[in-house]
Amino acid sequence: MNAANPAVHPPSAAQLPVPGHGPLGPRGMAAVLVALFVLVVLVPVLNLAVPADSALHLSASTVALAGKIMCYMMVALAMNLIWGYTGILSLGHGLFFALGGYAMGMYLMRSIGREGVYQSDLPDFMVFLDWKELPWYWSFTEHFWYAALLAVLVPGVLALVFGFFAFRSRIKGVYFSIITQALTLAAMLLFFRNETGFGGNNGFTDFKRILGFSITAPETRATLFAISGAVLIAMLLFVRWLTGSKFGRILTAIRDAEPRVMFCGYQPLYYKLTVWTISAVMCGIAGALYVPQVGIINPGEMSPANSIEIAVWVALGGRATLLGPLFGAGIVNGAKSWFTQAFPDMWLFFLGALFIVATLWLPNGVVGLWQQLRSKWQANKEDAA
Amino acid sequence: MSELLARAASGDRESAPVGYARVLGEGVDTSHGPILYLDDITVSFDGFRALNKLTLTIDVGELRCIIGPNGAGKTTMMDVITGKTRPDSGTAFFGQTIDLTRLSEPEIATAGIGRKFQKPTVFEPLSVFENLELAMKTDKRARHSLRAKLNSEARDRIAEMLARINLFDSAARLAGELSHGQKQWLEIGMLLMQEPQLLLLDEPVAGMTDHETAKTAELFVSLAGSHSLVVVEHDMDFVERLGGKVTVLHEGSVLAEGPLAEVQQDERVIEVYLGR
């Protein structure tokens, strides 16, 4: 084009919007971070520093529950990256979570030492199977750093290899969902076998200590809680950065018009593979933080129902919104812990009803509902003015 | 807007030889012949021959219209050129050296072929600005996109394009909120941001008002010379306005080729096209 013609209003790039974030601006984000930070500090303080007879005291079980829910929130953030933003519904995310948990569980089993029922160097279930030495894949698991590495690498490498073949073959939509579902089911059946060497259907439990600290001590629990909180905040910031980048906009573009993305010159394979692997690693980290707080990991975590539940959290909270998954995971799991105590038989009906409500009336989840109400309120205010 | 377009038109006409040199300088080698060369292409779907020994060449800087009844193979031909469909037999070359039957869709797009779909396909949840940002010619690997930042030069180019496609004031709106005709223009803008040497446009004026159609014709005519264009269209008035050579496809091969007036007199064309 020639130099700007003064008769036409000169296009100035300065007038243009900056590409990036949606409704949640820097101020909203700061408020959310402060709230999370306060929660992360307050819960351990109310547990440790407030006397047990005070009304403000939080019990150890409440701390454990809150810590557990924070781990689920990480999984929901990971699921939202792949499903909400990229449009790929994984029904096997529980597998990556469980693998991270098993990696940490191996270390925790090794640190029991000779304090097990059989007073052997080997974990109890191996003594029970009459194994004389550790299988090769248990090597180095006595080191915490190695277990932490495994918790990241195993889900990451599995996702990378699986994702490469699935995305290269252009497997999409419901077919991809079914294959991921089959993957987690197959892994569950494998881990149920005693010969696999991961404790069969009992999995790992009766942990004694982590890094030398008693795993049941209130201080250890509070520390684990605080670490989980810090990791959750870090992941939230990471997801915000990723989805606000050009990379994130391409993910959204892939979700809604993949052919156009390809004809723009982008190779969707590598974008999908990157976000898929990141998502799996986030689940692995969540699993590794979950196991020491809950004190058990077994193949039940790999059941297809668990993975489907993760999708329910995200759908209820609001897909492709930054905070939706946090609300979704919090609401469902908070309700679950209350319901399973108050009305144990009703829980699954309630979960089903929740999903139906979310599908029928909350297409954008609770975050979407809130946004709707807010814009309505603002419109009313403008009408009145 | 019309001044802008006219300005763009005259500017591009003047710079046509420069544009030609630019084509030579980049990946496509068109020094000894056409920019697109399809020879003996056959594509079958379950026994149905969508393309039947199709042979077609497009010259550098040419504006070619492709017409033909439904099922003549127009869209399949575009699918073959852009790598979406692999031909059963035949050769497809972009310039002298680039074998289109061996490249993936993104590779072909990067080589310099842009495609507009029949149904306007833009990124609806992203803003108009962001749509152009994603389309802009740059390193499109995932690694690069993670750290990509828009510099002021890139923003200026987007601003220019926004003005050119008459969407400057809608830059912050979501693409999904645009009218059908505006989406068509946005998609054309995205195509131009890719800086292709060859543009494939599948029914670009469907759903546009007469005024928008006229402006689109002006734009395409201005692009010819510096770009090569292949336009599939049913709207004969639009084809007439473009004024280039017309190719009539029928049952997967070329039935007639020439200026519109000549083609319209062709007995065989009248027979298949008007069903007489």
What does this molecule look like?
The complex is a heterodimer of chains A (385) and B (276). Chain A is an all-alpha fold. Chain A has 13 helices and 4 strands. Chain A has a domain at 57-302. Chain A has helices spanning 26-48, 60-85, 93-110, 124-128, 144-168, 173-192, 218-244, 246-263, 268-294, 304-317, 324-342, 347-361, 365-384, and strands at 204-205, 209-210, 213-214, 296-297. In chain A, the strands form 2 sheets. In chain A, strands 1-4 form a two-stranded antiparallel ribbon. In chain A, helix 7 runs antiparallel to helix 9 and helix 10 crosses helix 11 (324-342). Chain B is an alpha/beta fold and 276 residues long. Chain B has a single domain (2-274), classed as P-loop containing nucleotide triphosphate hydrolases (Rossmann fold, 3-Layer(aba) Sandwich). In chain B, strand 7 (198-202), helix 9 (210-223) and strand 8 (228-232) form a beta-alpha-beta unit. The longest helix of chain B is centred in the last third of the chain and has 14 residues, at 180-193. The model of chain B is unreliable at 1-26 (pLDDT under 50). Classes of the chains: A mainly alpha (385), B alpha/beta (276). The A-B interface holds A 1-2, 5, 7-9, 11-13, 15-17, 19, 242, 245-247, 249-250, 252-253, 256-257, 259-267, 270-271, 274, 320 and B 3-4, 7-8, 10-11, 82, 84, 104-106, 109-110, 114-115, 117, 121-127, 129-130, 133-135, 137, 140-142, 145-148, 150, 152, 155-156, 158-160, 162-164, 168, 171-172, 190, 194.
